[in-house]
Task: inverse folding
């Protein structure tokens, strides 16, 4: 299953999620950002690739829907409600991700 994690600039939250969940058997993970300044900017090709999409904040979902419309509406998309206040591989961030994402991977 292809899993895409999205935050704003693809610097801290979504790359951490990608790194953590790439070790899970049966999942291929990538990450991207919604901002023009994102390290890897989300695009239609990434969204088409993804079977499951996790966004860190509600605003990321709104940006995806307004930019990509039906493409996003056809996907399983979850808002994690994780604010932009953690660094890359921050232990608290990892714990939040594992608590919120893991159960959704196996439904």
Result:
């Amino acid at each position: 299953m292809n899993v895409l994690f999205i935050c704003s600039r693809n610097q801290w939250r979504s790359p951490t999620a990608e790194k953590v969940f790439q070790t899970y058997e049966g999942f291929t993970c990538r990450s991207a950002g919604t901002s023009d300044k994102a390290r890897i900017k989300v695009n239609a090709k990434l969204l088409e690739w993804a079977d499951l999409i996790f966004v860190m904040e509600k605003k990321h979902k709104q940006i995806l829907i307004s930019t990509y419309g039906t493409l996003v509406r056809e996907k399983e998309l979850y808002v994690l409600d994780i604010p932009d206040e953690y660094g890359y591989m921050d232990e608290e961030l990892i714990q939040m991700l594992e608590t919120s994402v893991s159960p959704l991977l196996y439904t």
